[in-house]
Amino acid sequence: MGAAAFAWPLISQMNPDASTIAAGAPIDVDLTPIASGQDIKVFWRGKPIYIMNRTKKQIDEARAVPVASLPDPQSDQSRVKEGHDNWLVVIGICTHLGCIPIAHEGEYDGFFCPCHGSQYDSSGRIRRGPAPLNLAVPPYKFTSDTKIQIG
To answer: Collapsing DSSP states into helix, strand and coil, what is residue 23?
Structure first.
């Protein structure tokens, strides 16, 4: 009994503190307030995450692009969850120098990085500018039709 009482504080101190756990913990996001054509920005692990409720027009335009013509070829379907094609979830950090792009700006109705002019389409794929890669898609899953969990 005495050994357990002595060992408990030593073992307990090896656990991460609450702020460390919170920094990497998954977050739940309710999608119901996001209307078609709108987006929100949340933070996960200190990174901005854009959640965009894309319109049919945005989806059709993204899917009409020949994948081979893209600097970082990826289909729109590979960047969204099946059955939830209207929801785009991306990390809002430009892949050029780490700036924060602005949603619904630029020539492709996606994201525009005003720092150096990188333009991403409504699927978060780089279309023009110095950025070498598409906006990253964080790990996420739908926990219901109106909620996602990021992380």
So the answer is: helix
Write down the pTM of the prediction.
Answer: 0.84
Q: What gap in Å lies between CA 60 and CA 119, rounded to an integer? A: 18
Domain annotation covers residue 13: no
Range of the domain at 121: 25-150
CATH number for the domain that contains residue 33: 2.102.10.10
76 part of a folded domain: yes
Which residues are designated catalytic? Answer: 116
8-state DSSP, 15: S
- Asked if residue 141 lies in contact with residue 81, where contact means CB atoms within 8 angstroms, the answer is yes
Number of domains within the chain: 1
Q: What is the pLDDT of residues 32-91, one digit of tens each?
A: 999 999 999 999 999 999 999 999 999 999 999 999 999 999 999 999 999 999 999 999
